[in-house]
Amino acid sequence: MASTGPTVPPLIMRILAASVAVSHRAGNIIRDILKAGDLGIVDKGKNDLQTEADRAVQRCIVATLHRHFPRVAIFGEESLDPGDRIPDDYIVKELSQDVLSHVCPDIYKNVSDDQVVIWVDPLDGTAEFTQGLLDHVTVLIGVAVNGEARGGVVYQPYYNYQSGSDAGLGRCIWGLIGLGSFGFTLKSPPANKNIITTTRSHADRIVTEAVNACEPTEIVKVGGAGHKVLLLIEGKAHAYVFASKGCKKWDTCAPEAVLHAVGGRLTDLLGNPILYHQQVQHRNAGGVLATLHNHQWFLDRIPANIKSTFVSDTASEEMVRLQQQAKASASSVPSGDTLFKEGSSVDPPEFHKTL
Ligand SMILES: Nc1ncnc2c1ncn2[C@@H]1O[C@H](COP(=O)(O)O)[C@@H](O)[C@H]1OP(=O)(O)O
Ligand SMILES: [Mg+2]
Ligand SMILES: [Mg+2]
Ligand SMILES: [Mg+2]
């Protein structure tokens, strides 16, 4: 009788195992670049910084994941020259055995390459990184299945950096909806407070108004979408409120999956899901609201005049569908598609399957 050989773990488990492994390498790259001292900072737009660490880590993660999963779509935040040489030691061949030791939930067993999109933020919290607020920095790898955030890795390269040389530097948190999240201790926030976390480097009048409308007893202004979701799952904040269109899919995919896997929610400000399929616009034009508990209570606090300026992904896509339908049925009608163009044309170019 022919031997059947070792069984290959399901795709989603292999993607998470590769992502966890490469996130440790990413952490080393970030720490080495900071130690070397030349951050190579450029401003990609207005208050939108990029450093050599963002660029190097994007090369490392995208090249590694593309090598393992050549048919899976990968979107990274940074736009790189596809001709860039990728050092051999940037390709991480190992898979995390810790991830592979978990049993894959049945719902993912038949997930195939074309159902998956990976969203990579090589360094979240860049503004704070350049200012030495090192624990605000995370590396984010989000795994979407059929357009929904399902799995995520949030690596914090400077966790423990102020705890003395005995404390291990860096930690990896990962999760999969249906399986759970690992690498931290889940804690609820204090019941007698209402701590709201929000941006420290991308605030404006609307951002502040939305936070104040949530009746905070305390406001924690810190950098990074990944870092703020860590505050939620470790009981340091009740809600992450960001009434801005500044966050992109790579900022929210991994944190959303990790949060959701322990019972929390991350939606836009209208309470609608953020979508993560291949064709979706990259920016979160609906803003961001994340909580471990009482999501609806916070949604209800966001003022209607603020809600009306945000557009959910589902509504944007419906708008496009109707416009395409109208164009097809009446070619003489002028193409008035300014609403969606405004929401999609400002996205930075992505580095997608160019390796
Ligand atoms: N206006 C913006 N322009 C560029 N990136 C933004 C903007 N607003 C938010 N972000 C991204 O979302 C993350 C969370 O926002 P904030 O730190 O302001 O709370 C930021 O660290 C940044 O990610 P990144 O650092 O990866 O560029
Ligand atoms: Mg950035
Ligand atoms: Mg980011
Ligand atoms: Mg980034």
TrEMBL record:
An annotated GO BP: phosphatidylinositol phosphate biosynthetic process
CDD domains: IPPase
GO MF entries: 3'(2'),5'-bisphosphate nucleotidase activity; inositol-1,4-bisphosphate 1-phosphatase activity; metal ion binding
Binding positions for Mg(2+) per the UniProt entry: 77, 121, 123-124, 251
Compositional bias segments (type: Polar residues): 326-335
Keyword field: Hydrolase, Lithium, Magnesium, Metal-binding
Entry's EC annotation: 3.1.3.57, 3.1.3.7
Cofactor annotation: Mg(2+)
Keyword Cell division applies: no
Protein name: 3'(2'),5'-bisphosphate nucleotidase 1
Source species: Candidula unifasciata
Upper taxonomic lineage: Eukaryota, Metazoa, Spiralia, Lophotrochozoa, Mollusca
